Amino acid sequence: MASVKPANTVRFAWWGAEESGLLGSEHYVAGLTPAEAARIALYLNFDMVASPNYIFGVYDGDNSSGTAPVSIPAGSDKIEDVFERYYAGRGEPYQDSTFSGGSDYGPFIAVGIPAGGLFTGAEGLKTAQEVATYGGTAGIAYDPCYHQACDTIDNVSHHALDVNSDAVATAVLTFAIDTTLVNGVAGKPGNRLGQLRPYNPTTVDPMADRYSS
């Protein structure tokens, strides 16, 4: 991607204090002026992307599973489509991951900014059906070292990391060039001034089931 000249600004963020209640992302979104928020075309969230006992989950932007407890901004379904087309083109299975509102995308969708992302599983237990689809071991956590001292740099699935690294690059490059799919604005992001909501922390539940699949 070093030779790519994106049309849009791509901002990378490493949020602090997510486990304490999304404090970093909340602080960022709460500090945006209406004009600044309106210029953000979309937000991509990559929290769990290489769990040892992985699944390939895509945030359910169209709420086709009907399980989202939060309002999902228009355009999020188009982000989901980009990831799903990537997995299909690579011959990899994938499944919906519920927008629970409890990861760092929460403050963004709370104000109406479209979002999407990937999820390979956390403390939940892998099902026999998922083993049939992805391999791995049924009845144990997707990430047995989740929030534990054993969660080191070695605690990854190299296959999932390889697949999802390319998935991340595909989505970032797609929207760095053009956000029309998400917000109907050719080439450039934004122009939603007056359409977004003020940030209200009570609309985000940081203790929600963050990692539903």
TrEMBL record:
InterPro entries tied to this protein: M28_fam, Peptidase_M28
Signal peptide start-end: none
Residues in Peptidase M28 domain copies: 4-171
Superkingdom in the source lineage: Bacteria
GO molecular function: metalloexopeptidase activity
Annotated segments matching region Disordered: 192-213
SUPFAM superfamilies: Zn-dependent exopeptidases
GO biological process, one term: proteolysis
Name used for this protein in its record: M28 family peptidase
Upper taxonomic lineage: Bacteria, Bacillati, Actinomycetota, Actinomycetes, Propionibacteriales
